[in-house]
Amino acid sequence: MSTARVHVLIPAAGRGTRYGGAVLKQYLPVCGKAVLSHAIRAFRFHPLINGIAVVLSADDQWFDNEVGKLATVVDTVTGGETRARSVRNGLQYITDKYPDAEWVLVHDAARPCLSAESLDRLLEQGLQCEDGAILAMPVGDTLKQAGEEQEITRTVDRRGLWAAQTPQLFRLDALSAAIDAAQQAGQELTDEASAMEFTGARPKLVMGSAANIKITHPSDLAIAEAWLKRAGLAN
Ligand code: CTP
Ligand code: MG
User: What is the per-residue pLDDT across 6-40, written as a single tens digit (0 to 9) for each?
Assistant: First the structure.
């Protein structure tokens, strides 16, 4: 594998409005530790990774307590109102602190089940692609377009459709410039690849895993717990 300098950026400054509850979803315990701790663990000892930065909201009061010892092996950065702003702040931090950083892997704090195999596959294929690469899964379900009364107006051809996951791997400079350009144009961004696409780049789709779920709704937590147990990653 190449010797590229790769940094990890984990946006964890969200409010978890869809999940609800008193504890932010990134700090909920799953298999004995916080969801965010699992997200950090996935990168911790990888030989190609030179550093991990976690983006926290300005009023975060939980990180040190909930993440424990792992908190001391990462840098922390203050996030913003949207995911794109949080990521942009983190990219700036890495650019300023690590001038020789070349590539960045952006990974949701809310994805605790990333496997070493998926991460290796992304790095192996993605570091060959100037436009970067993301983990993703071909869509399995039949897709329906809904009308105004939630009635089916048509079936969408799912051939060629993939669901985007994270990590997403890009050249650091290119991603920073792409987010700036997309935001200046008022483009709504739900992932980093969409910023790159806005500039005309064509990032590669790398096969992910069904296990790499994002905790979005309360029912997702039990699924994550089951995958972690199966992978032998439960405490
Ligand atoms: N995120 C962030 N800064 C924001 C919004 C989101 O760093 N202003 C992070 C979240 O913490 C999460 C990741 O981006 O790790 C993916 O976002 P999502 O799953 O949508 O989390 P939330 O925005 O917290 O949840 P919701 O959309 O339900 O409010
Ligand atoms: Mg969100």
Answer: 999 999 999 999 999 999 999 999 999 999 999 99
134 touches ligand 1 (CB under 6 Å): no
* 13 ligand 1 Cβ < 6 A: yes
Domain limits, the chain: 6-128+167-202+209-230
pLDDT of residue 233: 87
* Residue 78 in contact with ligand 1 by CB distance below 6 A: no
Pocket flag, ligand 1, residue 166 (CB < 6 Å)? no
Ligand 1 pocket, mutate which of 27, 87, 107, 108 (most atoms under 8 A from CB): 108
The residue-averaged pLDDT of 182-192 equals 96
For the stretch 17-39, what's the b/e string if a residue is b when 16 or more beta carbons lie within 10 angstroms of its beta carbon?
eebeeeebbbbbebbebbbbbbb
Token pair for 48: 């190609």
Task: Spell out the alpha helix ranges (H) of the chain.
Answer: 35-41, 63-67, 83-97, 116-126, 172-184, 192-198, 220-230
The CB of 109 under 6 Å from ligand 1? The reply is: yes
CATH architecture of the domain formed by 6-128+167-202+209-230: Alpha-Beta Complex (3.90)
Q: What distance in angstroms lies between residue 1's CA and the mean position of ligand 1's atoms?
A: 32
As a whole number of angstroms, the distance between CA 65 and CA 118 comes to 29
Model confidence over 215-231: pLDDT tens digits? Answer: 999 999 999 999 999 99
